[in-house]
Specification:
By secondary structure, the protein is of the alpha+beta class. Helix content is 37%, strand content 24%. It has a domain at 199-330: Alpha-Beta Plaits. It starts with a strand and ends with a strand.
Length: 339
Amino acid sequence: MPVEQISAPYGEKGEVADDACFSASASAPGKVILLGEHAVIYGEAAISAAIDMRTRVSASVVGREFTVDGHPLNPYRHTYIKRAVDTLWRDDPVRFITESGVPSASGTGSSAALTVATVAALLKLKGEYSVENVAQKSFEVEYGAQGGASPNDTSVSTHGSGILITGNPKRWVRHGFTEPLWVPRINNREWHVFHLDMPDLTLVVGNSGVKSKTPIQVAKIRRFFEKSGFARDLVVEVGNIVERGLKVLADGDYPALGKLMNRNHEILHTLGVNCPELQSLVDAARSCPGTYGAKITGAGGGGSMLALTENPDEVAAEIAKAGGVPYIIKLSKKGVALE
């Protein structure tokens, strides 16, 4: 749906201002995490990239009640949209229409894509749209909806391409990361988000069909992290893996990247976010000639795995035989966009 411009916008209290609109549409991509899941919550780094799956949201100021795809806005069914409304909107009811191209609860950033697209559309309606504002507000929305999160998913969905995200920016200065895209902040914590050039990787995502609930997995690792020095050591090792990953990506050394992915997967397994269905897909992908590495992508506990391979069709077929739903994906430079 195209943005319908009018001469005056809705403001915070219903008054009109410049550059407003009664309706706006936006889209945002899903993501994969190559290296660094969960550790980024504790100040370590992660490498993520946008993918060529997108979610679209249109928002129109019409009607007598808030609706989503023809249904009344429900805080349980429409958690992220409801949180975005509560965070950003103080005016007349909005009708939302969504079109999801990112599989739900799959570890490929479906909630982030929905959040970013929704926030972008609402900010456009308010006359407050900017990419940096979308990134910060989307993080606040997802953090509130999940009861805690890092800004990784919403940042890569906003920016597109690839990102390096860290809570310890000094460590990465020697690698040339000095100018962040933005610095999301919440509850006296902050993360620095940097652009990262990504090669043209062809990846295979395998959806296990087991719904992945990010808050549950985050809470599980938090309990382990707080009680166990071993868990804290594993989180530090993930940070070291990410640092090595930067070099092998820059060198185009895919066998080395695959080995790092495999080790990252082992750590996630030890931290407790693997499941039998995911492991069977990882094993199936690794059994194929030309597969460099395979790992959980996202929160784990279900959702999806990710394989780096020279033979995506063969890997996809083996994932399907193992009971998964495969997607051959490419990385995308396109982040959030008004439509």
